[in-house]
Amino acid sequence: MYSAKELLDQLNSFDECNYIEAKSGTSIDRSIMETVCSFSNEPGMGGGYILLGVRQDDMELFPAYKPIVLTDPDKIQRDLASRCASEFNIPVRPDIEIEKVHGYYLLKVYISELALSQKPIYFKHKKLPEGAYRRIGSTDQSCTDDDMVLFYNHNESYDSGILSRTTFDDIDLESVLLYRKLRAEVNSSAEELTLDDKGLLISLGCANQEKSSFCLTVAGLILFGKATAQRRLMPMLRTDYIRVPGNEWVADPVNRFSNIDMRGPMLRMIYRAINTVADDLPRGFMLPEGEIQAQRTGLPTRVLREALVNAFMHRSYKVQQPLQIIRYSNRLEIVNPGFSLKSEEQLGEPGSKTRNPFIASVFHETNLAETKGSGIRTMRKLMEAGEMAPPTFESNHSANEFTARLLLHHFLGEEQLEWLSQFDSLGLNLDQKKALIFLKGVGAINNPTYRQIAGCDTLKASSDLRKLREFKLIEQKGKSTATYYIPSESLQKMNDSSVLLNDSKASSVAVKEKHTTSDLVDDARSLTDNTSDLADNARSITDNARSITDNARSITDNARSLTDDARSLTDDARSLTDNTSDLTDDARSLTDDARSLTDNTSDLTDDARSITDYARSITDNALERNYNGKEVPEELKQLINNLGKRKNEKVYIHNLIESLCSWQSLTLQELSQLLSRSPNHLFNQYVKPMLDSGDLEYIFPDMPKHPQQAYKAISK
């Protein structure tokens, strides 16, 4: 058991995690009860801690959790115990202790994991599965049908479902022959090989025979069904191979990528997918010193096979969505519907949890898949042996998808080592250097990805990432479980300089007469000047924001002063009643207090004007900026300047956002600066409803949390 002080220290070392949740505790709200539910349910975690009486201070450079005053700790204990006993289908008994830390009283609440026979617990006023919660990372996620498999011993799975509208004619007989061939190579005396085709499919759980009616199961249609039958019954059952130029998803809807969609029985299609991708990947040869035979370099084919087999075998077929294989110039991303039933911390450990047992059985019996639970470990060993970056995996419960990411270049090759030499004076460790290489190629990294790259625990990953922030090499985005890191401005300059240098070397031979060294120097100077201008604008906006914060604090202080003055007036009034002889003096005191109030009111007015001026200054700066090389049109400037002069302000802002995004794709931060509204308010009140209604759309529709996400209006 941890003490409250130890929990607070852990929070400030690596933030909230799967077994620690921090709350202010001013009241027992819904979010606290959801955490109680998730700690009670999460399999194999053993429970978790809720620390009440702390709050994160976002005003510091490195936000830290600090104790706050709990006005009535006893009442908070009673409320929590009462709600735990009454709100769930079975009572939960939390272990609650009060401890004093740094002069403040904190409530340490420990929630034990329930026995399997008692799971899942859920809110009585909601039905399963939505009323139950699981602990995913540092978040509490509402359960889905897939989660119920963890709590109940189901005899039926989705892939065992019977498809009554199918017949034996829907079977692709070549895929049945392929299964027989693969199975015989593993075990030529397997009993099912002696059966006819119908008997074979029934024995594999891929078909069902009742009297004279023969029909396929979901597994049978996926593994052995003809493409025409799959399109008729499961129209989104396909695999998309997408080739994207460059390292990022391009917003151009016409030329952003090329696409190959693949359909058909999975036993045959998986070979087509592997061959299609493998033939498209970069390959090279290396002759080690002292050897006479060259070795082939590049992504090992077995790693590619394991990644694709894992995606086909574990994806959710309930979700009507294709499996995507996205090929960037520097990496391969395999995105399949359905989050992992294993936590990110358990990926690569022995043992397998599958939502498609009949499909998985066919893969294992034909040796298409590794021994249960060993595929990811095999991939990591092969990538390490090939001196390539380890594969990284991201399981997104809320988006219900799983992503495998494979970098295609040697992790610490000559080019990478040359680039890393810029940081020699910082004394970075090997894991931090690997993270910078990954960040350079992918553009973002988070704590789970760092742990997979470095093979370390959460504490070590948080410590290393904090040092990279202190060196101003990375910039933090998001909070809590949504925290991720992008290259800082200084690191981006180093990346750009490296790209310019490599492009210069590559192009000097092909177009020597077109570009002189002087031209390249001028281009580099121009890029530096533009970057400097952007940095100055960013500093100006930051200074204005800080000034606004200071003024807000001044207003708070003045408000406190007004409260004190009001109390003083009350005391004076009591004094007048008790002692009439001091009436004159008290009246004079009241007059002085009234003057003080007048002065304070004047100060508040001046502060309000100051804030308005700063807000106008930010808007003016935003109006004068260029957006992708374009100035804000005068008619839009006029509309922005008319903000606050309309009766129906909400409709006016809605139409103004639509006009701005019709002119130019804009980020949330750019809209916030142009309209002088906070990003959170702007997104919740306008942008999100406009996305839902179809008035706006993402420029990166497949990655809503893309670091450079922006919005554009939909033409009507």
Please give a structural write-up.
With 716 residues, the protein is of the alpha+beta class. It folds into five domains: 4-151, Schlafen, AAA domain (Methyltransferase, Cobalt-precorrin-4 Transmethylase, Domain 2), CATH 3.30.950.30; 155-285 and 295-406, Heat Shock Protein 90, CATH 3.30.565.60; 412-497, Winged helix-like DNA-binding domain superfamily/Winged helix DNA-binding domain (Arc Repressor Mutant, subunit A, Orthogonal Bundle), CATH 1.10.10; 516-624; 630-716, Arc Repressor Mutant, subunit A. The chain is 48% helix and 15% strand. It is built from 23 helices and 25 strands. The chain has a six-stranded mixed sheet, with helices on both faces. The protein has a four-stranded mixed sheet with strand order 1-2-6-5. Helix 2 (30-41) links the parallel strand 1 (20-23) and strand 2 (48-52). The longest helix has 62 residues, at 517-578. It is globular. Pfam families: HATPase_c_4, SLFN_AlbA_2. Residues 17-143 form the Schlafen AlbA-2 domain. Keywords: ATP-binding, Helicase, Hydrolase, Nucleotide-binding.
